Amino acid sequence: MTKAVRGARGTRGARAGWPVRGGRAVQGGRAFPRPGTAPARWTTDRRWRHDLGTALLCAGLLLALALLVDGVRGSLDVPRAALWLGLAALLHAALHPVRTGARPGELRTWGLIRRHTVRTDRLVSLTETGGLVPRLLLRDTSGHRLSCETAVLTANPLLWHRLDTDLRTSHRLGLLRTGAELLERLEERVDREVLGEGFGDA
Asked: With bands split at pLDDT 50, 70 and 90, how would you rate the model's confidence at 124?
């Protein structure tokens, strides 16, 4: 568990002899909402709104500049305006940031069209790809897969803390066959990020 964000774990209870995980009673491997308990809230990437604003700004600037140039040249008409609007929409689609969120037992990514979810307390594999934008690849016991940028997790200690807790549960249960060493390296990166922010705010 990350040292800089380690806190007390949520308490576990029982209802009618069923174990409770993340606010849900578990019976026979299936989770049911616990009466009177709201679903756990998602912890999401704190930079996502800024990145979304940047994507919208770039698309808006392209559209405004194209319309301005055509307007000055006197070549602006409905078909050309529709063309520039379409290009601006394509640019936004290309720049639109994927949103990453975690809550007890789950990690999810939301794109413009698709979303992916894995059970983080039932992971069997955790690997990292190289390249210009390193990404984490996660796979759970049901075969569900998810890919997210490593930088998103290391820049969001609270998000990482939720994931780290479940990763260690998977490791303790003997499910996580690949990724134990990577888990330790990621924890060190998050600690450095938190310490860096602390010195920056001092």
From this structure: very high
